[in-house]
């Protein structure tokens, strides 16, 4: 928009003389920045969709005018695929780098590789020619800190020194993480999934997907996970991936100027978005495969390969694990939300650095003595999922072997547990209690913190304990009726690692309330496709049990805690209320702020904008008739008046604002020039009658992503219902505090 005068707008001489042509044509052009929304407000999905349709129509029309315009239209059509390619490459690269960095820094708490300090323990011993298979975790190139400093690797002194340095490293990592978040990117804390879900639903949080947030979240995620806190990196990686998407979307005006276009994955999911998502995932997988962060040439984090099928009788312990997962999910959500609420309402929230340091100190001090809590949570889960073969050296595989056994290594029969297994069971029981308690206080601190891995760890520990118990019962009591039909003496009947995998799925489902997607995630993490029935049984049972105590998962609970305006598609509204019960203004409130189509001055509009904080204003024929004409957005109105005052002569405070289709006539030469703003008027705002059931209104808001709708009776404006009004009404109907919904 240049506004250079009549010569550029095609005004006739008569229009130039009366001073209206230049003004009208100028204001009929799109205004700068009118698509921008205020921070912590909801976008208008229908408006954004309409704007994108208009943009596409113009591009299609221009493409027929010249080859250059045709090329530009093709580039516009391919921009979505280019964005997906870039997102996939950057996301895969960051995921691989984060995995490698976490492995190295986690091992750095215990020792260092002398041949290459940037090698993790496993990488260091891979490169050693002096490592034997029996002692594959020990090699001369890797030394613990006590051995490096004092020359002694055994004894009380070495243990105390290693203990002290382990805690010191953990405190250093967590302090760096919380400090970087607090100083440079406050939005880099937490999981990010509750905010991402809210943003995708149309909410604006400026800076949450910005460049600084991407950089700081990537760095601090490595520090937080390496500190040994009971948190994971999978949830924050979703935030990182969304930051990558926002970064590349800003390079293309097709997405940067349309908030709805950047969010085509929430209220509706077009087929083209499905294909592009698949393409982005494919590129990310290829990139991750090239980096090979797991060192096994596979794309899954916990690859499993069991050699024994599961039996129908095992569904009983699988379902019991599902019950445990549901109970754990309920306990965690209630405990964590109570702690986070206390953090928000007490002095605890004013000292986030101190809280992180204290929780890290407690975690490190209690974790070090137990080998199952000292190691990284990913390594723990991997060991718990593992099937005991003939070459395994883990304590969990310390069974009493039959010297006369002559079977292939892949088909080892069930054996009596040895002393190492019983010792491991006690340590796992203590680790289970520790993980259950400490995770409640860890999730939600002012550092990047995911929940997938800690939840899976709790379930995997419980599942492995149950699996070993069932295995030993089957061995010692194979004549029982429950084992007689499928477990013969000397057979390999029970796989404890499978129970760990099922338990992990159950606990993750209890916390997140996922079912189908959870089973798919477990396939992705383990590659165990043939165990779909046990996983589904545990996931469904977990959800049923958890839903009996509350419908919300952990992410929905945090959305409610923070007061975000999120309408969950799973929420059902069955109350018999009407639109007139929810609309504003109420009887005790002042009348609705409206604009008239041809009798409001610029000064009146500016005063209305100054005295109110509404997102927009209905436009009516007159205040007497209240006949609805349309709806105008607050920001568009502000920008339009500001632009007209700066660029056009004759627009003053007493100028009349017109929303009519016909050009206003200036009665006398001395009268101020009128201001026509029909261009920014939405002539088809969504309306409902005052007797529309709220069940229908809620469904409309949810499926169309409305920002607000107007309530009318026979064309006469009665009131307005915003998304906040809907959410507050739903909260009130569920006996919750309606004031907890804080944002528009």
UniProtKB/TrEMBL annotation:
Q: Where are the transmembrane segments?
A: 78-98, 163-188, 237-253, 274-291, 311-333, 353-372, 424-444, 451-470, 498-523
What InterPro entries would the database entry show? CBS_dom (IPR000644), CBS_dom_sf (IPR046342), Cl-channel_core (IPR014743), ClC (IPR001807)
Q: How is this protein annotated for GO cellular component?
A: early endosome; endosome membrane; Golgi apparatus; plasma membrane; synaptic vesicle
Q: Where in the cell is it found?
A: Endosome membrane; Membrane
Q: Known PROSITE patterns for this protein?
A: CBS (PS51371)
Q: What's a Gene Ontology MF term here?
A: voltage-gated chloride channel activity
Q: What are the alphabetically sorted keywords of the record?
A: Antiport, ATP-binding, CBS domain, Chloride, Endosome, Ion transport, Membrane, Nucleotide-binding, Repeat, Transmembrane, Transmembrane helix, Transport
Q: How does it sit in the membrane?
A: Multi-pass membrane protein
Membership in a protein family: Belongs to the chloride channel (TC 2.A.49) family.
The molecule here is called Chloride channel protein
Question: Which organism does this record belong to?
Answer: Oncorhynchus tshawytscha
